[in-house]
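Why do we care about 3D structure at all? Because function follows from shape, and shape follows, mostly, from sequence. That is the central idea of this module. The next example makes it concrete: a single protein chain, its amino acid sequence, and then its structure expressed as tokens.
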Amino acid sequence: MGEENFSGSNLSLSEMQLQCLKELKEAVVLMKNDIHIISLLILVFFILGLVGLLSFMLIGIF
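And the structure:
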């Protein structure tokens, strides 16, 4: 009886772990998409900042 109980709890534990893994995978995929968007935004702002600095320097020189 005790062993049967133990194997039953193992089954439910593995099922829970599988469910958690599935949810983790989905969360990671969503996070990857967000990270791509955020990195693109940072790149755009960085380039805009560089262009602004360069134009500022050129105006200061001339």
